[in-house]
Specification:
Residues 17-475 form the Aldehyde dehydrogenase domain. The chain is α/β, with parallel strands linked by helices. It has helices at residues 45-63, 67-83, 85-96, 100-120, 159-171, 185-197, 212-221, 234-244, 269-281, 298-312, 333-348, 397-405, 420-429, and strands at residues 11-13, 16-18, 25-29, 36-41, 127-129, 137-144, 147-151, 174-178, 204-207, 225-231, 250-254, 259-263, 291-297, 352-355, 368-371, 388-394, 409-410, 412-416, 434-437, 452-453, 456-457, 470-477. The longest helix has 21 residues, at 100-120.
């Protein structure tokens, strides 16, 4: 199955659609069928450097535009995205595999960042700080940081880009974007929309390459790039930090997770099951905020795991474009192998499979629930990034908080309780950047998204999302004399 003719399959540099000068390409496939979707350019280092130069040249003009102009441009971007919802949602499913309903949700979520940051563009307020010295005035202003390097993952091929370019454009920055090699087509569609919205040449540049290390090295080490924003694994994030140290770039990192999902014995168990289905199995478990460890208190353990198992049995796994499919494939065979490893390890240590537990043909793995999982299991420490729900039993609040926080990661955490005192205690004690109490739904353009510990730093979305794309400058004004 090929993409529709109007969709682009080229890189986008300085307002032009380009192939690799070498003629090299790499293949994008549908993870559900293995079918070839498109061939896209495999750019060289010289061509990536050309994209950086284009962004550098465009920065003086774009940064000088008024916030109102940037607001209007981002709103055009937003409206154009909505006009192409059906087409671009289908494209997400084709290259990523998630069911069409999920892809449509991602597309609308993606568009919401353009709408949100269109509004934030005109709210980059400064400050006046009273001076301790007569005759001086202290002013604080916000300015765009400069050219931004953006590296995004395959699991949200559209939303992870707009979550970064939204605030960057609103602040007045220009960008060089490294499209994910597995899912670059949605990024290309966004560049086409940017062009239609009137974003000038060089402001947004999209590079495609199988050599991700080369592109990352250019973005991290080039002195023109003033900030790098990365979403991906903690291991790669650490490498990018090392590479960026030579120029002391500003960084924002949204990295790995190992989210706890806690069900206390005073919870509404039915609501907790509904929340777990979302928090664990959304996108077949391939999100950074997916629940990775489900802790259930003794009194409700059997009830919760029985109801969770019954709900998972109703899932329909298949091609995301087929009617009735609730869960699609994993992105590639390596992702399947990791789930297989985690299930086999847990079962060898005493865990029991209540539903699923088998790999299918190609990139499919059955949504799986494990009970009686020991803390010694590999899944307790290692993020699965797949449709596996390991359930652990606990007795006391103190015990489960130690278990929940016993990880180097700290992105998201979930828990269910109807005790208001416990809600406050647990929310404050949970060592994560984001906490969901009595809900399995997290992502919104309006919230500050980001983690702590080895899950990274910086916030995306919300009123805080502009900060990472701006510098805070002091303007001290002297020679004003004193009041009459």
């Amino acid at each position: 199955m090929t993409v529709s003719p109007q969709l682009r399959t080229q890189a986008y540099i300085n307002g032009k659609w380009v192939d690799a000068q070498s003629g090299k390409t790499f293949v994008v496939t549908n993870p559900a069928t293995g079918e070839r979707i498109a061939d896209v350019p495999d750019l060289s280092e010289e061509e990536v450097l050309g994209a950086v130069k284009a962004a550098e040249d465009a920065f003086p003009v774009w940064s000088a535009t008024s916030p109102k102009h940037r607001q209007d441009t981002l709103m055009k971007f937003f409206n154009l995205m909505l006009e192409r919802t059906e087409e671009l949602s289908r494209l997400i499913t084709l290259e990523n595999g998630k069911p069409l309903a999920d892809a449509t949700g991602e597309h609308k979520y993606s568009a919401s960042f353009m709408e949100w940051f269109a509004s934030e563009a005109v709210r980059t307020y400064g400050d006046v700080i009273p001076s301790t010295i007569p005759g001086l005035r202290n002013l604080v202003i916000k300015q765009p940081i400069g050219v931004v390097g953006i590296i995004t993952p395959w699991n949200f091929p559209s939303a992870m880009i707009t979550r970064k370019i939204g605030p960057a454009l609103a602040a007045g920055c220009t960008c060089v974007i490294k499209a994910p090699s597995d899912t670059p087509l949605s990024a290309m569609a966004l560049m086409e929309i940017a062009e239609q919205a009137g974003i000038p040449a060089g402001v947004l540049n999209l590079v495609t390459s199988r050599n991700s290390r080369m592109v990352a090295k250019v973005l991290c080490e080039h002195p023109v790039i003033k900030k790098v924003s990365f979403t991906g694994s903690t291991g790669v994030g650490k490498q990018l930090m090392q590479q960026s140290s030579s120029t002391l770039k500003k960084l924002s990192m949204e990295l790995g997770g190992n989210a706890p999902f806690i069900v206390f014995d005073d919870a509404d168990v039915d609501e907790a099951v509904k929340g777990a289905l979302i928090a664990k199995f959304r996108s077949s478990g391939q999100t950074c905020v997916c629940a990775n460890r489900l802790f259930i208190q003794d009194k409700v353990y059997d009830e919760f795991t029985t109801k969770l198992t019954a709900a998972v049995e109703k899932f329909v796994v298949g091609n995301g474009l087929d009617a009735g499919v609730t869960h699609g494939p994993l992105i590639h065979d390596r992702a399947v192998a990791k789930v297989v490893e985690h299930v086999e390890d847990a079962v060898s240590k005493g865990a029991k499979v209540t539903v699923g537990g088998k790999a299918g043909k190609g990139n499919f793995y059955e949504p799986t629930v494990l009970v009686d999982v020991p803390i010694s299991a590999l899944v307790s420490k290692d993020e699965t990034f797949g449709p596996l729900a390991p359930c652990y039993r606990f007795s006391t609040e103190e015990e489960v908080m130690k278990l929940a926080n016993d990880t180097e990661f700290g992105l998201a955490g979930y828990f269910y309780s109807r005790d208001i005192g416990r809600v406050w205690r647990v929310a404050e004690a949970m060592e994560t950047g984001m906490v969901c109490a009595n809900s399995g739904v997290l992502s919104q353009a309006t919230i500050p998204f980001g983690g702590i510990k080895e899950s990274g730093f910086g916030k995306e979305g919300s009123k805080y999302g502009m900060d990472d794309y701006q510098i805070t400058k002091l303007v001290l004004m002297g020679g004003l004399g004193t009041r009459y």
